[in-house]
Amino acid sequence: MTMPRLDDRSKDLRRVIVRTLHKARRGHVGAAFSLIEIFRVLYDDVLRFNPQDPKWKGRDRCILSKGHGCLALYALLADKGYFPPAELDRFCAADGILGGHPDAGKVPGVEASTGALGHGLPIGLGIALAQRIAKRDSRVFVVLGDGECNEGSVWEAAMCAGKHGLSSLTAIVDYNKHQSYASTKEVQDLEPFADKWRSFGFAVREVDGHDVAALRETFKALPFAGDKPSAVIAHTVKGKGASFAENNMKWHHKNKVTDQEVEALLAAIGEA
Amino acid sequence: MRENCLKTVYELAKTDERIVFVGSDLGVGVLAEFKREMPDRFFMEGVAEQNLVGVSAGLAMEGHVVYLNTIATFLSRRCYEQVAVDLCLHNVNVRLIANGGGVVYAPLGPTHLATEDVAIMRALPNMTIVAPADAPEMIRFVRASVDHQGPIYIRVAKGHDPVVTTDTGPFVIGKAVPMRTGGEVLLVTTGVGLQVCLAAADKLAAEGVKAAVLHFPTIKPFDTAALHAHAEAAKAIVTVEEHTILGGLGGAAAEYLAETDLLASRRFKRVGIPDVFPSVYGDQNGMMRKYGISADAVAATAQSLLAARPKAARVAA
After folding, report:
1. In this predicted structure, what is the pLDDT of residue A1?
2. Residue B317 binned pLDDT confidence (cut-offs 50, 70, 90)
3. DSSP of B90-156, one letter per residue?
4. How much is the pLDDT for B316?
């Protein structure tokens, strides 16, 4: 896997995430840094949306099923104008709209409230079926975690999506190979992961989930087959962009984040 | 009751394109006409209840009114988190048609009984729970359900249940129905407990005791105003349900009455299934009889409450 240096936009989005978690002094840093290029490319280059009309029927629907990666989603939604960037400073505040998991009832641009794992793909499948009934060309993207793929409901939905041959549905897995306790290999090995998705009826491509050009090219090729849902397995690095946090389980979820740690994160991003 | 419920959904779907049907792996031929005439809105998606609820939520988020049908215990226990998060948290228009509420599947054993479904559904914000007593009431309910905002858990009885309801007007979600009024006993019930309570009231009448019967086809939201008004006239209140006595209709009544002064001078008893997994097979009526959900036992329970000495005011020393 190539390890391209992060460009300015990727670094800036990571700085936004650090700013967001600074006030709350907590957040799922590893997951957010793992996801940022996936969301950046989706919102910059792929999705059809209108921040002035978040419920516009013609939009593409994007669901963050691994809700604990919300810091990355919030950074993009703020960047696109779904809510004022100042809202980021109220992350996890009692009266804020941005919780530790995304709430569709509060945050414009969030399609479904997630946090409990294994819910996004079934909901996304239902939304995709509704587009088919309405003969609308909106697409549905569901971003899943690798640990999340331990949940049986993911595979119930995968089997069902395969049956329907819904080419408008794309599952994107943030495959950083780490879950909360340890590596995915140790906790619940997912391999042969791409073959699993294929056997459930998906057309699959694998990509370096931090390579912006490669992500653009991959998403541009969607759907990968005209009569199948698509799966993108994005090989990522947990904590990508802050060398001391990369693949470091202590940074899966961090609370009581100190000013020194914030400075260290910002310094590491600068060097990434 | 189930057939009439599904048939009504089909009839409504013919003129309302919002309506979608989702089933698991139902009996062969179920809603064949729906599938034939409206194939794009008919889904049979297998024995995967978590996915069924999530898919239904997604369809509802896009404006559909989804009727999701499978066996009650699998629709309540198996996918409880999906019901809580996908349906109730998002407050979407999914109607859970739960076959075999209570002990309908008595011969099939405890894995197939839904004896705590009302209790666990009651605990979820935004959820509405209904348990009609007979087919005509179910049909009236289904017609009223289409434009209701939010998820609904529909407890379906065995079928061919004796018709006892008499209303012909629109079903009002959230309203209790007084079937008999006045008397020193108040029987509070839901679902096919109504048939039991009407027979119990007849038996009590033969014994010289007048009993009111208050039917709750909607269990949540709970019609506390109706309970209050009818409880005031009674000396003894008995709740009767084909459900555990923990947290269901009896629990709802007890919670309300305990927070008023109505119990200060009245006796109160919950009749239902005790805190056990029923250990016998047989049939629905037999299992209900075993746990005192029968006309004779309910009448006897009411009489024993009346015979108990009036409550004396107790003041701490």
Report:
1. 47
2. low
3. TT--EEEEEET-BTTTGGG-GGG-BSSHHHHHHTSTT-EEE--SSHHHHHHHHHHHTT--S-EEEE-
4. 63
Average of per-residue pLDDT across A5-9: 94
- Are A156 and B48 within 8 A, CB to CB? yes
Nearest to B58 among A105, A116, A123 (CB): A123
Q: What is the CATH number of domain A8-242+256-271?
A: 3.40.50.970
What pLDDT shows up at residue A249? 85
Omega prior to B110 cis, within 30 of 0: no
In terms of Cα–Cα distance, which of A266, A208, A231 is closest to A22?
A266
Separation CA A106–CA A115 (nearest Å): 14
- The model's pLDDT over B87-118, given as tens digits with 9 standing for 90+, comes to 999 999 999 999 999 999 999 999 999 999 99
Residue type, A142: V
pLDDT tens sequence across A189-211: 999 999 999 999 999 999 999 99
Domain boundaries, chain A: 8-242+256-271
Mean pLDDT confidence for A150-176:
98
Burial A57-73 (b: 16+ CB within 10 A, else e): eebbbbbbbbbbbbbbb
With contacts defined as CB-CB under 8 Å, which chain B residues touch A130?
Answer: 58-59, 61-64
Domains, chain B: 2-155 (3.40.50.970), 177-307 (3.40.50.920)
B60 to A124: CB separation less than 8 angstroms, yes or no = no
The answer, for B303 touching chain A at a CB cutoff of 8 Å, is: no
Kindly determine whether residue A123 and residue B51, on different chains, have CB atoms separated by under 8 Å.
no
pLDDT, position B312: 63
Alpha carbons B128 and B170: distance in angstroms, whole number: 17
Mean pLDDT of B241-269: 96
CA atoms within a 13 Å half-sphere pointing along the CA-CB vector of A12: 7
Q: Which two tokens stand for residue A193?
A: 């992961």
Contact A123/B86, CB-based, under 8 Å?
yes
Q: Which positions in chain A touch B53 (Cβ < 8 Å)?
A: 122
**pLDDT value of position A42:** 98
C-beta separation of A209 from A234 below 8 A? yes
Residues 49-108 of A with CB under 8 A from B: 104-105
